[in-house]
Write a structure and sequence with these properties.
Length: about 130
C-alpha cells in the first residue's frame, strides 16, 4: 500500500506525540508509527510529513513545529496548538459506541453498518 494512504494517520500520531512529550525524536515517531500503523516508514518520510504539516498551503495546518538542534528533536512552539481542534473525548466516543449498540434493533442493517464504520473512523483518527 502506498505510504501516502497513511499520511493522515501519521499526522495524527505526530500531533499526539508532540502533545504527550516536550521533545520528540524522529526515530521515536517512526517506531510508534510502525508499531501502531503496522507500516514500514522511514525517518525521511516523517521529516517530510512534519514539513508538510508546517508549510503545505494545500493542507493548511501550518503547525508550529520547531526543531531543537541541541536535543535533536521536534517540539510544538505553541503548546496549545491542535492539528485537529474538533476532537471527541474518549467518553464521547464511548457514548457513541453505546448508542450504536442500543440502536442496533431499531435501524436498518445497512445504516447500522455505516454508523459502525463512522464510529470506528472517529476512534482511529481522534488524535
Amino acid at each position: 500500500m502506498p505510504q501516502n494512504k497513511f499520511a493522515l494517520a501519521r499526522y495524527c500520531m505526530i500531533d499526539s506525540l508532540l502533545h504527550k512529550h516536550e521533545y520528540v525524536k524522529t526515530a521515536y515517531i517512526v517506531e510508534i508509527c510502525r508499531r501502531k500503523l503496522k507500516c514500514n516508514i522511514t525517518q525521511r518520510t516523517i521529516q517530510m510529513d512534519i514539513e508538510a504539516m508546517r508549510d503545505d498551503p494545500f493542507l493548511g495546518y501550518f503547525a508550529p513545529i520547531e526543531y531543537c538542534r541541541r536535543r535533536k528533536a521536534y517540539y510544538y512552539e505553541e503548546g496549545e496548538f491542535r492539528l485537529f481542534p474538533h476532537r471527541f473525548s474518549n467518553k464521547e466516543v464511548s457514548l457513541m459506541q453505546n448508542l450504536l449498540v442500543l440502536m442496533r434493533n431499531y435501524i436498518l442493517d445497512d445504516d447500522y453498518e455505516s454508523l459502525k464504520e463512522i464510529v470506528a473512523k472517529i476512534r482511529m483518527f481522534n488524535c
